[in-house]
Protein: 37S ribosomal protein S35
Amino acid sequence: MAPRICGTSTTLASLDACLQTSSYLAAHATRSFSLTCRNEKITKGRYEMVKWIKEKAMNNFDKNHPTYLGPHVDQPFPSNPLFRSQSVLSESMKNRIYTQVMDHGVAMKAVSEEMQVDVRRVAAVVRLKELENHWKLEGKKFATPYAKAVMKMLPQSKWAQGDMNIPHEPINDIPVHKLSMQQLFVPVSESRHFTREDAAKAFHEGLLSADKRSPQRELIEIERQAAEEGGDRATSIEEFRKEAQEAEEEYAAELARKSELEDAKIKKSRKGRFEFRIKRYNSETVGKYGRARDATGWRYGQALQDRKRGMVKIPTSVP
Structure:
């Protein structure tokens, strides 16, 4: 609303100023209710993105490997150079690991050395493949399209017989123990040969050396012999595979023997669709407080502390 004119002696200049002020206030008050259509033109950023996709991205696109926007091959996020995408095992590599272990009976350590995959990952692949085959027999459905889409977005490690394959991961890495994270100054004479055993004892009396904590310490011995004695590495690898096979067969036989002994101690009686299992047990071997882990009825009697309010239920330290 325009301001009211108080008197008749108002000049024309003041009237023009009043009209301009009233028009500005009216336009400013109704600007938020404008019915003007949105801008249909493409923004500059979107235009540059479409231009980059048509000119450069399509030329570098590879259907067999993931194409990332970062400057490096393994950098998916351009603004985060610290994040690098790690390779995963391809489906063909998983199938070969499972075939070698389950069908051909090759030791898992030998498969780990041959395909350069950690022995714990080899064991995990075998277990998951066994579960997958079990689900197939049960007729369960799989999210195969989703799995394929995820695998296309990740770099994959592939393995071919007789080729110079790129190692998937280091197979002899060990976790850093908390006792070895301290800084020590140990005086040692120049004539003394300071080994990894001495370094472990310097940190703690009960700490094992890096060689003994390695998942495959036999490979360290092979490399040491090849470096010091100049032996044939291929011959040593063949001996390592034979020893790993014999050790795994002995371990499997020991597990089977223990299982047979346990089954011999149990009397089984089947009544219809039920089977009763009876086993002799010494009631005196229940531990100091009567709550030994392997004792009969250790869950009953004294209440556990896992459901009490205020109790810390998460690990507070890493062993």
About this structure: The mean pLDDT is 82.
